[in-house]
């Protein structure tokens, strides 16, 4: 990698597994492996709720050296510290994994507050690193942010999943929240309950306990308890076993900056149904004009049901998606490339 000044990376750790935390961890690993002059500071607390309690920790870190890359959840919770660093002549870069203002189910007051915080932090940053071109374009529309660099998440090479001939094993891998819209997925699946399929909803189920309860109620009311399983979060060997037993990923997010799970599915040759008009459609991608799955309108259970129906009832479509997923597997970005893009961008702006 290009030599340059020491780079500080300020992150936080979510109490449940998230794509953002995986990105931060893998980026840090790659920077160390590449010999970059780099140090990482993990700020304490549960962000953004702990911003007042731990803002002093962030302020001291930002004053300790000139070049910083900050996770957006932290930066957008304390935008005044980002502005202060910019006034000292050392504006940090922000690594944006998600926009809290885009979450589904916020009150108008909370959404406005998040928008104001995000606007202040993102506009003061040296640059904003996004995980997709879709997100970079979204920031331009929302906040007029033009200093962006796109660094898609990397993905590790994984063993190919052969899949069952009938393709009946479905997976939704995401924390249970209104934004990820598992409730809409349950509604969609109930419309094709006459077909043979099973579905696992894997991800943090305590992020929004009220929403998880609503999803469980919907499963019971639609008589899908023996077919739809909520597992809670899974990592490591347990998650690998779930991937090995998956035929199709279904990600019904209302908003998605990228969707790392889509790339993880493709690395195993598993096709996906994702939401159109989101970063997940970009993650799905194309090979020679063909997609390894389909993008459907978010918040549209009927469209989701039709897409799953097509997968389950059309063997030729299943084979086409699987062939394309395996081809897409060979085009995925390695983590080393992701790290190289970020380092080059930051050094070029010091």
Furnish the topology, listing elements before pairings:
Elements: E1 7-11, H1 19-33, E2 38-42, H2 51-64, E3 68-71, H3 72-75, H4 79-87, E4 93-96, H5 108-124, E5 128-130, H6 133-143, E6 148-150, E7 169-173, H7 182-190, E8 198-202, H8 209-221, E9 228-232, H9 236-244, E10 248-250, H10 260-266, E11 272-275, H11 279-284, E12 293-296, H12 301-313, H13 315-329, H14 335-347
Parallel strand pairs: 1-2, 1-3, 3-4, 4-5, 5-6, 7-8, 7-10, 8-9, 10-11, 11-12
Helix pairs in contact: 1-14, 4-5, 7-8, 7-12
In short:
With 350 residues, this protein is an alpha/beta fold.
Would you write up a description of this structure?
- The protein is globular and about 65 Å long.
- The mean pLDDT is 94.
- The chain has a 6-stranded parallel beta sheet with strand order 2-1-3-4-5-6, with helices on both faces. A 6-stranded parallel beta sheet has the order 9-8-7-10-11-12, sandwiched between helices.
- It is built from 14 helices and 12 strands.
- It has 2 domains: 7-154 and 333-347, Glycogen Phosphorylase B (Rossmann fold), CATH 3.40.50.2000; 169-329, 3-Layer(aba) Sandwich (Rossmann fold).
- Helix 1 (19-33) crosses helix 14 (335-347) and helix 7 (182-190) packs parallel to helix 8 (209-221).
- Helix 11 links the parallel strand 11 and strand 12 (293-296).
- Helix content is 44%, strand content 14%.
